[in-house]
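Appendix B, example 12.
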Amino acid sequence: MQEYKPVKEGKVREIYDIGDSLIMTATDRISAFDVILKNKVTDKGAILTRMSKFWFDFTKDILPNHMISTDVADMPEFFRSERFDGNSMKCQKLNMLPVECIVRGYITGSGWASYQKNGTVCGIRLPEGLKESEKLPEPIYTPSTKAEIGDHDENVSYEQTVELLEKQFPGRGEEYASKLRDYTLALYKKCAEYAYSRGIIIADTKFEFGLDEEGNVILADEMLTPDSSRFWPLEGYEPGKSQPSYDKQFVRDWLKANPDSDYLLPDEVIEKTVEKYKEAFELLTGSKF
């Protein structure tokens, strides 16, 4: 049996090259503030993978995505074990684009902090008088660069994404930048509307894209998971304060309140995080985890 080693290891994911395609494995690691925590969150990888699969299927009418299969029977023998079953996805190889495509439908987090200072979010002027967690008149596209582990992503303007992509693809920077923006907004609008009907507000999220061999834009990485998005319960939603959430905010809040924790979480925080992830998965997909 051929053994495989990850060709790339992110904060949460491991990527294996199997020749004609890739295997993307979501581990049970959890990160916050760009640091990998010392705990593992049981079943987290499987929840993220199944949630991404759900959204990839749901949005393939907008654009193609990189998912080939989540069944380990379709993967080399090395991956047909408990370690990979349920949390791995066989994916198309792509030339990944160097932009994190962030979309915000509600004002919260760093966006709210920025708005309070000068009425803008990532340089975009917003109407006066917005409250914390309020829905924006229209979702806004606020891209950033992709940082290496340990570094922070940097917000960039749409014009800067054109320049960034132009350097990599001379003559096509504007075309690719506008496609990323338009796809990001179209994906968010369709999915946020659906999630709202299931009792979940998607406050913001990020998407990543790559190019196939023909130069077509393909949706990649993970999609609308609690790791890459802010999910709020619709029940009890009220602008003017921060909202309870189904994502890592619970972990972030605990770490902020316990600065000497050395990134080690107590068991009850881990259990509550798993519960939140499962609850979000079941509400959105309509199936039991």
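The longest helix spans residues 173-197. The mean pLDDT is 94.
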